[in-house]
């Protein structure tokens, strides 16, 4: 029986996961993935245009498979969900930068390298992040504005999401070297300061931040960070 396109795609992703896990991103080629999947490289390219696209899809699948992430995306759009989403992003990136997950740190470094080179991997990953989180962010922000807990910004909601993402990404990068580039202070204080800065930046009122952020920051992470870093 002829294999369906979706089944073939999953077969390729499974082979790619094994290759990336064994050889890392730099040591894996589309040719080696095709061989592991027992297909031609030309057939692989019919499903994924490049190694960067393949890796971005794997990271997106891992994120979708995370039960905590799935639970968050399933919550009703609200100010509380928005704060949970933003504070969770801050905690995730700072956790990577502070060495809680070596694999995620390598992915973060790959994301940075992509920006300095052709940007291909970064573009693919940003698209995946937007597909996963963008709509939820917009819905939650709209809910916060409607409830009077946020002020509508002149900036497009999607832009506000990326402003927040890039802010915490850059802050995390300053902590990657063994001696941080900027002496922000403790991780806990930086987590709070970044979360407050981002929430104010996207328009939340001080009252809303005070109402929801303390509770969110008091919650321990359910597990080490495993979602897409970019």
* Total of DSSP H or I helical runs spanning 4+ residues: 11
Q: What's the total number of strands?
A: 0
Strand content: under 5%
**What is the share of helical residues?**
55-70%
Radius of gyration: 19 Å
Mean pLDDT: 90
Tally of structural domains: 2
How does the major sheet shape up?
Answer: none
Poorly predicted parts: 223-230
Characterize the overall form: globular
First-residue to last-residue Cα separation: 39 Å
Provide the structure class.
Answer: mainly alpha
Order of helices and strands: HHHHHHHHHHH
Descriptive tags:
Homeodomain-like_sf, 2 domains, 11 helices, DNA-bd_HTH_TetR-type_CS, single chain, Putative transcriptional regulator, TetR family
How does this structure look, described?
This protein is mostly helical. It has 2 domains: 5-48, Homeodomain-like (Arc Repressor Mutant, subunit A, Orthogonal Bundle), CATH 1.10.10; 59-217. The chain contains 11 helices and no strands. The chain is globular and about 60 Å long. The model is unreliable at 223-230 (pLDDT under 50). Keywords: DNA-binding. One of its GO terms (molecular function) is transcription cis-regulatory region binding.
């Amino acid at each position: 029986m002829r294999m369906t396109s979706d089944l073939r795609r999953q077969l390729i992703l499974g082979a790619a996961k094994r290759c990336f896990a064994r050889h890392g991103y730099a040591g894996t080629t589309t040719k080696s993935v095709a061989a592991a999947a027992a297909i031609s490289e030309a057939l692989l390219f019919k499903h994924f245009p490049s190694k960067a696209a393949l890796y971005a899809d794997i990271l997106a699948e891992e994120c979708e498979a995370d039960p905590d992430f799935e639970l968050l995306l399933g919550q009703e759009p609200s100010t509380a969900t928005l704060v949970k989403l933003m504070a969770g992003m801050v905690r995730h990136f700072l956790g990577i930068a502070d060495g809680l997950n070596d694999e995620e740190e390598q992915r973060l470094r790959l994301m940075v390298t992509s920006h300095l080179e052709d940007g291909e991997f970064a573009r693919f990953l940003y698209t995946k992040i937007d597909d996963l989180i963008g709509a939820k962010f917009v819905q939650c922000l709209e809910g916060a504005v409607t409830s009077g807990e946020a002020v509508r910004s002149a900036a497009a909601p999607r832009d506000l999401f990326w402003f927040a993402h890039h802010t915490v990404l850059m802050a995390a990068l300053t902590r990657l070297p063994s001696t941080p580039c900027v002496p922000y202070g403790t991780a806990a204080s930086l987590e709070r300061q970044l979360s407050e800065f981002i929430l104010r930046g996207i328009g939340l009122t001080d009252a809303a931040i005070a109402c929801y952020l303390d509770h969110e920051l008091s919650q321990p992470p359910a597990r080490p960070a495993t979602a897409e870093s970019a």
